[in-house]
Amino acid sequence: MENDSRGDRSGRAAPGPTPSEAREALAGLEADDARLAERLVTPGWYHPVLGAIVALIVCTQALPSPASVAFLPVALFALPALVLVYRRRYGLWVGQPAGPRSKRLLGTMVVLFLLCFGAALVIKFTTVAYAWVLLPAGVGFVASVVLGRRYDDALRQELGGTVGEA
Known about the structure:
By secondary structure, the protein is mostly helical.
């Protein structure tokens, strides 16, 4: 019986790649990361559309029940639809941060969005006028646009290996 893996006849596996093979493999991975970073381009319409979806979700939190039940599924359906359109048009999607800066920016956006949703719920369950929901909705929109673009820049830099250059 012949062993398919690298090894001698005793069945013991040979040591891993040589140092030069390992360096070549790492260089290839770095080149792949750089090519991925070049392809990772977010169109100008993406973040404003995302911001509008976030603002709509925030607004629906403050609506009375029948309206909230009607509009919230539409807004929630729009999020995966946006990702699907982006993925089909550009052929890739990065679903998680690539380094500390993009991770920090993503965390900041999530916290801001949760605060916006919470503010909308406070408006719904108190006597505050509904028009005040526009404030957290606006914050959600601006955060999506401004921090979303910064997140994309950080992600590209971290994937391309140019973290300290920006």
